[in-house]
Design goal:
Order of helices and strands: EHEEHHEEEEEEEH
Strand order of the largest sheet: 2-3-1-4-5
Number of helices: 4
Distance between the termini: 64 Å
Low-confidence stretches: none
Radius of gyration: 22 Å
Shape: elongated
Helix content: 10-25%
Mean pLDDT: 87
Structural class: alpha+beta
Length: 251
Amino acid sequence: MPKDTLTLELEGSVSPAEFAQAAAGFWQLVSALQKHVAPNAHIDWTVSDLQAGSASETITCESAESAEIQNLVKEYHAIGLARSEARPLAYPSSIVKAVEKVTGVLNGRITAVRFDSRYGIATVTSPKYKGPDIKHLATTFGAVTGRVQTVTNRGGLRFTLYDLLNDKGISCYLSEGQEELMRGVWGHVAIVEGLTTRETGTGRPVSVKQISDVQRYADVEPGSFREARGAVRPEPGGMAPEQIIRAFRDA
């Protein structure tokens, strides 16, 4: 049966109580959306991914009515965009209240809420946040290096890559038939190429879609740094290695 996924992610320092509030609002929003968009459709919902490091939850919707799922996911994205752009939500009060419950956790310490789906990412930032621009996103073809920590095939093949620079989770989406790219990659550092969406203010990647390649980094053997011994020879009369190290330490 047709499947799709919806993801909610919180940015910043998130307490268990705050994550629980956002997760409850997330489910209320999805339930209200189903009643609004597809009241007669039978849709099975499952939690397909939970990430503590990036405070995110992904749920999978599965139904024989593929058009109903598509409309629901589109509306989820539209709601996120409207809230991101501070536009009024022209939806039933049950949906509006659920969105307010989700975004009610924004307090400056929690800097942003992201509504993520196959149609894009919409970011709602805290009014108290005064840092670099994390609301506006730019998508270009590029590559991200990180460690593959989670792989799921519920609602499409999706995995989480932890960026080596920021140690933040990045949602990566593979197309049907690309399962072979992930063979032997879980738990290892890899380079993922595809349409990469980044925060314009920080350059931090938040998702990779339309992936073209996944290349695993060769594992570094313990003690392999010793193979570099003698690679650089000091000039006659120059500083010894221990003197150079001492000079850097005392600088």
